[in-house]
């Protein structure tokens, strides 16, 4: 079941999907938390947090990659701590690629979810409180379902961005077949070789198909959610 | 009218120096592949300097260059770099794998597309090192990124140009690849067809002049044809 | 026991309300914009008062977070959860008395529906059901019946009376409809421009001729308390004993011996100097005129003592003159049996 | 002239309603969930009917886009524009009769406010004002007064009467409140489970003893039309001439010669076999019993002819027996002047 | 007034701002239109349009850059047409950089605005229609103000992305100093030069300051809008 692709390409496709999926799913809870903080709370450093979240959007991806290397590399403060306490290594692993993708996608996901929070009628949360619901329960049973479509939109944006991420990933974890070589890396490599336009076209087509599939799935899910909410 | 030069990114430092001495020169840097494709798409370049002859061939086939203007400008060396405390290395499979340790990786430009990676791959194959390291590579989109991986201690070894090795004080060259182990590393330059051919030709001559070459050599490059 | 004294600024509006009520149902009555919703939002904890306190049955709720106040709040704007079905909305705060509530409110056929597909009245019934099923210790109701039709209103009022009597849940009840207020509540709090202008037992406030301008001409009237004495199944009439007389009222109003409350709007009382004969009105009370107050306009408020009961009548000045009414005079008050029909008769909870 | 015949499926619910009305105010009455809002949504063009037509004054609106129907729709849920001030909301559809509307609805102090800061009643007043100021050719009102207090309700009803008489705008008026319906409307359409079960002139439907079960016991009653004959400024009483008698009613009800409509709920009418004396009720009509209908429960519906006027009385079976009432008998109907007070008196628009 | 920066850097900063501003403002109307189509209309090709919009997110930026070069280059079908009929050249001009930035930012902007459309209560638009408002007027006076915060959020995301765009820009318009060299491409150039970490740090700091400034401004604007809407 490799759809007629050569194994290396097929491997890159599968890896890209895995990295994008893990990046999206793992960053979602944090994105929701950060979006909630930004949408609902006033605190010292709020502007800074907001800026930090958006930074990967503003900086060239290579710079983000370098910063990741400095912070999360085996010698970096966070990377060293992760290795020493949790035994987790990110460098040259697909997990590192997922981290890079997640960080690059983070601003998009947070923004979408934040718009969702802004659209929730606080009166409904008040109503739940009068019915005795704890803050956690209100969040889980009222707020979260209501921001569902926004979370989904954020996840889609994030997934797409993670699928396409290249600059930060290759700088942080290089391109190692089977570990960190994703579709964009493969395409980039091919583009540097004269006369490889055919191979590029194949990979680009795969990307497009993946994107269309993801979007179609997300649209269907989103419509169902909207129907649940709108009635 | 000024001259616009499209040049491989690794030439930035010396070329900027030379440009300062010339009237009205603008230099634009990027990867060689990117530049070549742009010139084919009609970019306003008057002079191109690329890091690999393959893309020059492609430009020539596209009839984008002024016939006869293509010259070999510079050469370079590829070397292995490692942290300062690392002893010098024999280019043998055992020494390499020892230096990499149990799970270390050799940082290198993309071996299929980045020029330094292409030359490196040729050298590793011809020295019978490829089988020992081919699954221990960490390929990057530029030599600079490979260098950074070694400098940050992520990779114990990196295969880069000699010009790049000079700039990281924390690293040292632990092995040099003999010139014969790979195709000659050639930075070629050519004048692009267009209205500004004469000025471009003049600038090209200036690059080849002794003063020009001094700047390149100062940055660690070798004059073309000189091993 | 409800003890509220709160201040709160909202833009140009200032809420500065205090009242105490003994429990049971406390009606909050007042014109649009007088601060009723703001007041119960403070009681609910949804609006933080600038100063003051809220005490229910001796517990100071002022610092208690909303979710621990154990309130059932029927919001003026329903606030159903749009993503939950009617059944899930209802069960959100608990499933106390579930089947009875669903039955009373006629929600059985709607359980799988989402709020967006409900009619206005259905929406407010679900909101009501949700609050009731949460088994609250304090019920806050903001015009809960405004969107309901008459028969449904009557049913819900019956349920609230049973709730009040059975579970002793204090209820703050905002309404514009004096017949609801008189039937249900023990205490009446009248608000105007953010302040409480009158508060006291319903019967007292409504039958106070001085309060007519505040309560409104059409809504003033007495609230009588009596006891069921007999039921005539053939004619479907109940006899209710008051202190001075026995009234005959349509329908079965309660078990023998049960206490009932009757609202008698002042404008529905006819006075006669002679005992009437051959008349369809079954109820004639012999009373003595306690006060006669001429208001503005064509009316005269006549306050009557009938045994220990107090009645209020509103008649035209011309009639008062023609009949030569004066304080201390004995008159016959004619009450039409059918006028005091189901909707104006409440049970129990003597003020 | 309103001519509506529409079918529409909504989930399990089917709207299948047809009625015609001559103009003026047409009341749509029915229990919660009976399809009133759906019906006027179809008329407004917001709900596309599966089949049928909507014609107003001879124009077929069925295919006309909403914005060209020139309707003023007072939604059950207000639907104010949250981002606009009250003044901007009001002016959105036009500024027809602006100052009068603002004044009548007491919106002057709210003009700069945003909808989120309005009370429930204020919100519905602004929604009402917005629809009125758009100078519509057809007014659709979905329980527009449910959130208003009694005095404000009376004012708005007065305005609607003037609007109806002055500008001939047909109005479809959804309400649960029969006193509103009787006072304002010319035609009454009663809905149940998506269908029109009764439609006709208000006076006819309400005073039809057969219709009592549909209309509801408490809401049945006659609507009389009379003419202002005199006004006594001293006593503040108006004399209204009916076909068979002259009534004396409190307050100034209109200019001399003006037509007025009086709602006389069946349960407020007292019957007497003898002419009463020494009584505070100023109005006694001599009538003849047309029909006697025993319903379920304790009541008997007595339909009376008084001159050419028809009256409906509801008395207990026991009284009917005691008085020996029978068809054709002459009886005295006692109406209390103050009971037919301002809220139940409308102007003009004879059915 | 160059804040102590050398003229070339200062030029790149100004150019980046100009490109990001033009890209954001010019693409906004189209983004609103596309978001409206996607949120409100069912039509043949809807899924395709959705996919097309998201494509720049999924593809490596370099690929997008090449596609732009192929389509909008002087030899390209659209580029040739633009040159011949309107006399407009995009390739290797700052206008082309703006086009690249706009296209890369487009999916982010559209998504945010689409979430805005989804949150508008259609009942309000119905109410406006009963008051005689034409579709255009409803859109301008009801829908647009209500999606204001979402449009702003989209614009901020787009502006940030446009400020940070690198891959597509350098591919489509190169990094010609003074003409198309933006902050990210300048950073890229500096990264190639040994010992230029100081200069890179300066540019990264400028990026961060610009981002924080933009975000602060947007937050303030957004809060005011929210207050207008929520009351
Ligand atoms: N979209 C829908 N899908 C399914 N059922 C619906 C939908 N809209 C309305 N209904 C149902 O149709 C019935 C009629 O609704 P409608 O809103 O017309 O009632 P109504 O007479 O206005 O009631 P109320 O007085 O409570 O406002 C209700 O039972 C309602 O639940
Ligand atoms: N957040 C606010 N800012 C400014 N004014 C407010 C705010 N909330 C309420 N008000 C004003 O305070 C007054 C009281 O409002 P409240 O909702 O308590 O009235 P209410 O008695 O419940 O009226 P209704 O019967 O119309 O619902 C109103 O005039 C309202 O406009
Ligand atoms: O920020 Mo990029 O240029 O989409 O990797
Ligand atoms: Mg209120
Ligand atoms: Mg309705």
UniProtKB/TrEMBL annotation, chains A, E:
Location in or out of the cell: Cell inner membrane; Cell membrane
Residues annotated as transmembrane: 12-39, 51-72, 92-110, 138-160, 199-221
Membrane topology: Multi-pass membrane protein
InterPro entries, per the entry: MetI-like (IPR000515), MetI-like_sf (IPR035906), ModB_ABC (IPR011867)
Gene3D superfamilies in UniProt: MetI-like (1.10.3720.10)
Domain of life: Bacteria
Domain ABC transmembrane type-1 intervals: 13-221
UniProtKB keywords: Cell inner membrane, Cell membrane, Membrane, Molybdenum, Transmembrane, Transmembrane helix, Transport
Function: Part of the binding-protein-dependent transport system for molybdenum; probably responsible for the translocation of the substrate across the membrane.
Family, as annotated: Belongs to the binding-protein-dependent transport system permease family. CysTW subfamily.
Name used for this protein in its record: Molybdenum transport system permease
Organism: Loktanella gaetbuli
The encoding gene: modB
From TrEMBL, chains C, D:
Keywords tagged on the record: ATP-binding, Cell inner membrane, Cell membrane, Membrane, Molybdenum, Nucleotide-binding, Translocase, Transport
Superkingdom to which the source organism belongs: Bacteria
Organism per entry: Loktanella gaetbuli
Keyword Cell inner membrane (UniProt): yes
SUPFAM superfamilies per UniProt: MOP-like, P-loop containing nucleoside triphosphate hydrolases
Pfam families named in the record: ABC_tran, TOBE
Domain Mop: 278-344
The name this protein goes by in its record: Molybdenum ABC transporter ATP-binding protein
Keyword Transport: yes
GO molecular function, one term: ATP binding
Record domain ABC transporter: where: 1-218
């Amino acid at each position: 079941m490799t759809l007629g692709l050569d194994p290396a390409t097929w491997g890159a496709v599968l890896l890209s999907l895995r990295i994008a999926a893990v990046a999206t799913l793992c960053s979602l809870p944090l994105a929701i938390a950060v979006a909630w903080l930004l949408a609902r709370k006033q605190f010292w450093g709020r502007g800074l947090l907001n800026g930090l979240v958006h930074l990967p959007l503003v900086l060239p991806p290579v710079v983000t990659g370098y910063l990741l290397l400095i912070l999360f590399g085996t010698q970096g403060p966070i990377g060293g701590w992760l290795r020493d306490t949790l035994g987790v290594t990110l460098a040259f692993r697909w997990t590192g690629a997922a981290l890079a993708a997640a960080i690059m996608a983070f601003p998009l996901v947070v923004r979408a979810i934040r718009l969702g929070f802004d659209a929730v009628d606080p009166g409904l949360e008040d109503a739940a409180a009068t019915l005795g619901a704890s803050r956690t329960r209100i969040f889980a049973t009222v707020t979260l379902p209501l921001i569902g479509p926004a979370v989904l939109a954020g996840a889609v944006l994030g997934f797409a961005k993670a699928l396409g991420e290249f600059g930060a990933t290759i700088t942080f974890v290089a391109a190692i077949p089977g570990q960190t070589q994703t579709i964009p890396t493969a395409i980039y490599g091919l583009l540097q070789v004269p006369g490889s336009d055919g191979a590029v076209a194949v990979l680009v087509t795969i990307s497009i198909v993946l994107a269309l599939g993801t979007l179609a799935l997300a649209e269907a899910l989103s419509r169902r959610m909207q129907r649940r909410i709108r009635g | 009218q000024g001259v616009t030069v499209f040049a491989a990114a690794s030439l930035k430092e010396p070329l900027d120096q030379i440009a300062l001495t010339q009237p009205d020169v603008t230099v634009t840097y990027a990867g060689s592949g990117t530049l070549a494709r742009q010139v084919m798409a009609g970019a306003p370049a008057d002079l191109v300097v690329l890091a690999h002859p393959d893309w020059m061939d492609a430009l020539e086939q596209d009839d984008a260059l002024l016939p006869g203007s293509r010259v070999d400008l510079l050469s370079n060396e590829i070397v292995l770099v490692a942290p300062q405390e690392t002893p010098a290395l024999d280019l043998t499979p055992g020494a390499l794998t020892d230096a990499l340790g149990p799970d270390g990786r050799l940082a290198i430009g993309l071996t299929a597309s980045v020029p330094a990676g292409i030359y490196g791959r040729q050298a590793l194959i011809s020295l019978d090192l490829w089988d020992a390291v081919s699954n221990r590579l960490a390929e990057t989109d530029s030599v600079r990124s490979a260098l950074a991986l070694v400098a940050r201690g992520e990779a114990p070894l990196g295969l880069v140009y000699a010009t790049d090795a000079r700039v990281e004080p924390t690293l040292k060259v632990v092995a040099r690849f003999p010139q014969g182990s790979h195709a000659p590393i050639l930075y070629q330059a050519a004048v692009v067809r267009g209205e500004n051919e004469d000025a471009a030709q003049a600038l090209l001559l200036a690059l080849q002049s002794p003063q020009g070459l001094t700047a390149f050599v100062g940055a660690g490059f070798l004059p073309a044809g000189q091993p | 026991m409800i003890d509220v004294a709160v201040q709160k600024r909202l833009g140009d509006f200032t809420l500065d309300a205090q009242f105490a009520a003994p429990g049971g149902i406390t009606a909050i009555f007042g014109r649009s914009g007088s601060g009723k919703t703001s007041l119960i939002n403070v009681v609910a904890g949804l609006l933080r008062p600038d100063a003051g306190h809220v005490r229910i049955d001796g517990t100071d709720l002022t610092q208690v977070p909303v979710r621990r106040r154990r309130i059932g709040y029927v919001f003026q704007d329903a606030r159903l959860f749009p993503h939950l079905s009617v059944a899930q909305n209802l069960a959100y705060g608990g499933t106390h008395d579930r089947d009875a509530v669903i039955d009373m409110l006629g929600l059985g056929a709607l359980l799988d529906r989402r709020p967006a597909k409900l009619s206005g009245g259905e929406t407010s019934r679900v909101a009501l059901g949700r609050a009731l099923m949460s088994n609250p210790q304090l019920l806050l109701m903001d015009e809960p019946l405004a969107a309901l039709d008459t028969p449904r209103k009557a049913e819900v009022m019956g349920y609230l009376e049973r709730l009040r009597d059975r579970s002793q849940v204090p209820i703050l009840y905002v309404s514009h409809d004096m017949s609801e207020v008189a039937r249900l509540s023990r205490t009446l709090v009248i608000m105007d421009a953010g302040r409480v202008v009158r508060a006291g037992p319903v019967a007292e406030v409504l039958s106070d001729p001085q309060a007519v301008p505040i309560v409104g001409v059409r809504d003033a009237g007495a609230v009588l308390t009596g006891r069921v004495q007999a039921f005539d199944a053939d004619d479907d009439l109940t006899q209710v004993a008051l202190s001075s007389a026995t009234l005959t009222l349509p329908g079965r109003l309660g078990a023998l011996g049960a206490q009932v409350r009757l609202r008698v709007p002042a404008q529905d009382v006819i006075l006669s100097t002679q005992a009437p004969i051959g008349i369809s009105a079954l109820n004639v009370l012999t009373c003595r005129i306690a006060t006669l107050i001429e208001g503005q306009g064509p009316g005269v408020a006549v306050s009557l003592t009938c045994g220990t009961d107090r009645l209020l009548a509103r008649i035209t000045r011309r009639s008062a003159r023609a009949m030569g009414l004066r304080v201390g005079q004995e008159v016959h008050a004619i009450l039409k049996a059918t006028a005091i029909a189901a909707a104006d008769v409440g049970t129990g909870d003597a003020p």
